[in-house]
Write a structure and sequence with these properties.
four-stranded mixed β-sheet; binds nicotinamide-adenine-dinucleotide; binds magnesium ion; alpha/beta
Length: about 425
Amino acid sequence: MDRMGRVPKASANATAEMVASKVRNVDVERKRVSVLGATGSVGRSTLDLMGRNPHMFEVVALTGNNNVDALAELAVRHGASMAVVGDDRHYAALKSRLAGTGIEAGAGAAALAEAAMQSADCVVAGISGAAGLRPTLAAVSQGRRVALANKECLVLAGRMFMQAVRDAGTELVPVDSEHSAVFQAIAGADPATIERIVLTASGGPFRTWSREQLARATPEEALCHPNWSMGRKITIDSATLMNKGLELIEAFHLFPVLPAQLEVVVHPQSIVHALVEFCDGSMLAQLASPDMRTPIALSLAWPARMSAPTKRLDLVEVAQLSFERPDEGRFQALGLARQAMQRGGMAPAVLNAANEVAVEAFLTRRMGFLQIAKLVAETLDMAEGRNLLAEVDDLNGVLAVDAAARGLALNLLETWSLSAAH
Ligand code: NAD
Ligand code: MG
């Protein structure tokens, strides 16, 4: 140290290293984290962050669906105490892969819920689709803090899910990048001061395509997202803009706003993830490279922050941020989702179920890209006719509507392919 009290640079570094190594070695409380959907895109990014910071985190339970080798490998590498596959036909294979490791193996719906209920400081909900609802609710019921990536929990059962969170007195930290951005911009502000929330959408790979081109779009083209690397289902949803529609519904349940206060703007650079406008005219935005490890890091460390190895933004290199209105004529899924949000009840659940069926049918080439929104619209009409859209407040009731809507969508699909064959 010199007379001014300044520490020479080398010695400052040494001090920082000493503190860091103390933090690593001394028995600091590590956060105990379970990851549902560990073998997926969000799951792997979460484990990547935790693996880089073993002094901060301890892995409890990991789950997958049917990829036994990947799940077992992750469980061993991260020292998990439990590994569960959703598909119980893979139980024997998982048990034998984990023999001698001391890691408990499980399979099936009850085991997924058990994994979610293990004692932990945080449960990352990274299962894709409606399958994530039951285990995530199980985590909430035990008062676990949930880092929520699975937007379907809120789309299917937003009211019930948020009520369960309040009843358990626990916290929900959004992982979806737009909602993480809103969460940070709101940061405890008085709800009455929030005028508008703007979610940004990249516009996907077909942002500039005509309807004629969209009619011929292939799964390979739709899976080529310009900015984000994600699971297949959400990548197709980004191409139809259904993902942004589901995110409107997610935001409606997470934040204290009415549907009319939620807006979507296309922002092809995916640098600004969302904005919140306040009553004094201020708009607060969150900016980051499009890498899910930034919002996941916040959800793991919150209310603190942790470092994430993402590309830092060079604003001069980015140079331009542009914004445009979404074209709901070409991307009808967005309008359908907004109407479902306004309609409320089970309309969002029916929308989601029909969309899951439609995306699968598109990926397996049973129908074209533009038919995704068509199948969703027609399923919603049929569900309305059968009184399936009224609010349901219990899990089994929601899952029954989900199953009924899938049945309607599959029937429609069948009718379409029959009429195409004739
Ligand atoms: P993914 O397809 O890459 O992974 C899904 C995970 O869920 C896998 O581990 C899979 O084994 C598991 N799973 C799937 N079906 C299951 C079932 N029936 N039972 C048990 N487990 C099952 O998906 P993803 O892209 O990581 O997305 C996960 C969730 O996070 C989705 O709800 C998605 O909307 C949301 N999300 C993802 C991203 C992203 O960048 N990938 C961004 C925002 C939100
Ligand atoms: Mg998102």
